[in-house]
Amino acid sequence: MSELSWQEAVEHIAQAASLDELKEWRARWVGRHGTITERMKELKALPPEERRARGYELNQAREAILEALAAREATLKDLGEAANLEAERWDLTLPGRQPEVGLLHPLTRVRRRIEDVLLRLGFSLAYGPQVETEWYNFEALNIPPNHPAREMQDSFFVDIPGMVLRTHTSPVQIRAMEQHQGRLPVKIIAPGLTYRRDDDATHVPMFQQVEGLVVDRGISVADLMGTLTAMAQELLGPSTKTRFRSSYFPFTEPSLEMDVTCAVCQGRGCRVCKDTGWVEILGSGLVHPTVLRNGGYDPDQVSGFAFGMGVERIAMRLYGLDDLRLLYQNDLRFLLGFRHQGGLR
Length: 345
Ligand code: PHE
Description:
The protein contains twelve helices and ten strands. The chain is an alpha+beta fold.
């Protein structure tokens, strides 16, 4: 096995590439069955004068190999440590990395602002399903089958007969009255997603509304106008003025649309308000007697008012947007423009 002289072995050891390789050299030369070890065992068989000289030589060889092993081992360990240090080196002069911080979508902020204002006015939150029965979405609200009002709100019907994606949050009026089981007052707001087959600069097929409903004894149009004007001034600024125009909804009588002075031009006239100084923000009215009855209330004993507004429309007004679709395109250049608009609530 050992065609090498021990001097040659020392040279190889001095150049060993790894600690594993050193281990092999150690076993092969000075291990229990190493070359030198075996030769030493043979010493006993030699005549005394030869034994001394041979023993001396073998000892020298053994020392030299052990020394070479130790020296190379130290060098390899040093090299390994240096390489590790280099690999783990921290460059403390590199610039830091700024973490990306998320922010609430402008529509979420506007919806929460509307909710805040109305909760402070004493309303509570109520919710209903987005996939709604035709009864809650239409019939119970005094919109019979084939009534032209159903075409005003081009519906998405679903595969289950008698079900639609709700076209407004008004079905929650009925659900909330049912839940109150005749107790007074009913004073709820119902924010949520609604769906209509519309898609242009001022309509998207999925949008958000906030519904409001008050039912109590002696509720009048004065309550409606006072409450909604207070809400508009909280939402859009104390100098905001409101005006009410008569309108039509099957579930209210009388029906009123509320306009506010344009927040962009303060009523002077601009592109957003089409130079009228006013913008429409919601539909409202006194709850129709049939609707009260469908919710389990007696229209001879109680009355109520209701309103419904589009959150996107309010956002457009608040931020002076002329294309509602911007709110749904998830374009960071647009969304990040709201970074400085108040807290991240
Ligand atoms: N539901 C009506 C709409 O979506 C708005 C409305 C709500 C009108 C409540 C009157 C009362 O257009």
